[in-house]
């Protein structure tokens, strides 16, 4: 009987998120690990043999991965407003912190339907913003989840951090993480080399 309350809350939440004037349209991407498992040939990472995920506490520890499109959805900011810095044109604020809370629902309504997704930690939420031909996609990484009720099925909101390294224009592809890390290592090596001169 009591679980009818959160079930009803979740149904209402979906309707509110989809129809709210402050809701963002989103694209959700999931992390796909490219490391080969030990039963594959070769089973290695960066030339070293591997035993699958042994030694990996979380998929955030993986170094060889890419992001795979999971589906479209809607995200409604779900935090109280607090004073925030304004941009120079005085037409928007840039937010007081790098941590954001969203209620996220997939565009597809039912489990198993194409484009349906469950939001997980380390998923990337891309929010397209702009008008005409001038578009950008702002990237946020899901870093946690919290609930506002204590009866399952829980009403969940997601804690997200801004991912400035993944922002793109509307036609842009994600940055290749392996190439980015190689470039960062090369840059750091050049700094060390220059400092020794």
Secondary structure layout:
Elements: H1 4-19, E1 24-33, E2 44-45, E3 48-49, E4 65-77, E5 99-106, E6 124-131, E7 134-147, E8 156-162, E9 168-169, H2 177-196
Antiparallel strand pairs: 1-4, 1-6, 2-3, 4-5, 5-8, 6-7, 7-8, 7-9
Q: Can you tell me about this structure?
A:
- The protein is an alpha+beta fold and 197 residues long.
- The chain has one domain (4-196).
- 18% of the residues lie in helices and 34% in strands.
- It has 2 helices and 9 strands.
- The strands form 2 sheets. It has a 6-stranded antiparallel β-barrel with strand order 1-4-5-8-7-6.
- Strand 2 and strand 3 (48-49) form a beta hairpin.
- The chain is globular and about 70 Å long.
- The termini are far apart.
